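Illustration: DUF2207 domain-containing protein.
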Amino acid sequence: MVLFLLLVLVAVVLGIIGVAAEGLGYLLIIGIVLLAADAAIAYARWSRRAGRRPIR
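Result:
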């Protein structure tokens, strides 16, 4: 969970810097890609956990 939150924070910071600083648009792209990768990792962990429920 700490890794997830850290990656979200880094993605947001890179996005803000990429938008605010002229000529650093690549940081915005890196932030978006990092956020998308983090969401995919979180979805994979969530879907793996959902399969462990016992059948009643």
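Reading the tokens back as a structure: The chain has a mean pLDDT of 80.
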